[in-house]
Amino acid sequence: MTKWSRFNVASVALGFAFLYLPIVLLVVFSFNESRLVTVWAGFSTKWYVSLFNNQGLMDAAWVTIRVALLSATIATVLGTMAALSLVRFTRFRGRMLFSGMVYAPLVMPEVITGLSLLLLFVAIGFDRGFWTVTLAHITLTMCFVAVVVQSRLLSFDRSVEEAALDLGATPLRTFFEVTLPIIAPAVFSGWVLAFTLSLDDLVIASFTSGPGATTLPMKIYSQVRLGVTPEINAACTLLIALVTVGVVIASIVTKRREVQRQRDEHAAFAGG
Amino acid sequence: MKSLGNIRRSFAPWADPDSKPFISFKNITKKFGDFTAVDNLTLDIYHREFFALLGASGCGKSTLLRMLAGFERPTSGEIILDGQDIAGIPPYRRPVNMMFQSYALFPHMTVESNIGFGLRQDGMPKAEIAERVRQMLKLVKLEQFARRKPQQLSGGQRQRVALARSLAKRPKVLLLDEPLGALDKKLREETQFELMDLQQELGLTFVVVTHDQEEAMTMADRIAVMSHGNVIQVATPAEIYEAPNSRFVADFIGDVNILEGKVKAAGNGRIEIAGDDFTVRTVGDAAPAIGTGAAFAIRPEKLKVSRAAPADAAINASEGEIWDIAYLGDMTVFHVRLPSGKVVKTSMLNAQREVENPIGYDEKVWVSFAETAGVVLKD
What we know:
The structure holds 2 protein chains of 2 kinds.
Chain A: H1 6-30, H2 46-53, H3 55-88, H4 95-107, H5 110-123, H6 130-154, H7 158-166, H8 171-199, H9 203-208, H10 216-224, H11 230-271
Helix pairs in contact in A: 1-11, 2-11, 3-6, 3-8, 3-10, 4-6, 6-8, 7-8, 8-11
Chain B: E1 23-32, E2 35-45, E3 50-54, H1 61-69, E4 76-81, E5 84-85, E6 96-99, H2 111-121, H3 126-139, H4 155-167, E7 173-177, H5 185-202, E8 205-210, H6 213-219, E9 222-227, E10 230-235, H7 237-242, H8 247-252, E11 257-267, E12 270-275, E13 279-283, E14 293-298, E15 304-306, E16 317-327, E17 331-337, E18 343-349, E19 364-368, E20 374-376
Parallel strand pairs in B: 3-8, 3-9, 6-7, 7-8
Antiparallel strand pairs in B: 1-2, 1-4, 4-5, 9-10, 11-12, 11-14, 12-13, 14-20, 15-19, 16-17, 16-19, 17-18
């Protein structure tokens, strides 16, 4: 272990402070007794209670979760399919164009994605609401899933699939019994990524949402314009907790897999 | 009766004009873009044969195997298996199974599930699958590892799981792609004999792809030596070694000395070639034109090194000087420099532990050989 120099300590502290001070402040003030956001007046959980009694916020949270679950799931299916075709069918006509277009939403300003989707929905007369937000989020998050799954597929040993075909499994069964179980961790991380992206999207949701389909970030943003209340702090704290739990679970799964693999290899060598 | 090499068993369907080939490649060509991997190749493999495709990497041997498995479709030509053209049949409907070079075990399944995978695809009843899996585990001596994952096994154990998995469906043909490539030398030699015994026991047709000539010679009934998408020679290991049909095969398999010269006389089952150091007289039915160039191939162990001149020093003999000596334990290799400056390689079996007055460096010696010791190459 190298010794920590003062410079190191300072830079780590500064980095953490820069990243987490605003969040810590938000969390701390969500437990504030006072209505004033910037003045500490003692510990209280009353804002959480009032949050759960705030029908508007609770409705928005419910909409957000439904949109996130549905869009993440569909985006995972589509993104996985896109990744498969990009990695496997290396010589189809228009592959370059397709791969460029799959990744376009990664770099496209959200305002443009949101606006173009809005124009599309208006043009085809699709009533804006829950379904338009969901569709828009699928468009946004599919490419992230594709990137994650594609990187896993690039290191995938094709002969394992060939072995399945050779042993009599049809291409479809090969996919579900061999390919999918092996790439499942990557597909799962793609899903988690899509879920969190959908959860905290404000811009695209604002463009494509309609009456009765206000998402939580939209609701928070509109309330903040009228003044920050500790209730909003409480809502944000819960959101942070949700995302943190998700990230921690994902990293524990990865870590355990890694440890298990090392232990297996060790056992194999010991067993001769 | 004289023959080339030891006959392993009375099994030679290729020599019997009445026997029908089990697998036939007919004018098979496979192109990948501009690259021709297999070039108008025709080859017959017989039932219960242990057949080896031998060649350097990129010679098309793996492509040929993959076409038999169904992973590649021939650009043109027919593949007949047991009387049926299989060119259009997908891999999952072919009665052949393959053992992969990387083993390609399913990492998310136990050893048992790996072996039973093919049987489950066929919808075999559970009890029968369990019984067959148990038999296969016993066959490859892995009973106590049934519930392990592939990552928890050593390289040799994984190889045996892959073998058991590819045999579980009792295929008509087992394809083996460099089956022992990932094993260390000792284990590889042991496993070669295990595979031979297994093939005999099960009475299956094995087609193995390898770049290791020793492996091919050990295991196979016949070997096809391949180069640039073509078969150069198909013959038993002994024929390949003792009677190579070309410079390529002679050079590819084992060590060889090639003596160049011009045809001096031919006929009556004899050929005489005049070279720089030797006048070669050998047996051979070919009748090349007098004066054309000819190459005579002779293996190092067929050359005799002696201090005394042989009885007829004008034919099949030359003076020389010991240039290098390598003692290898079981034999000693001498490099002898001939008057023209050409160095030939000879080897001598060390049948006795002690040698009276052994031949040393820089000594003048005679190199000689018998009339039947080598072959005239066809190109």
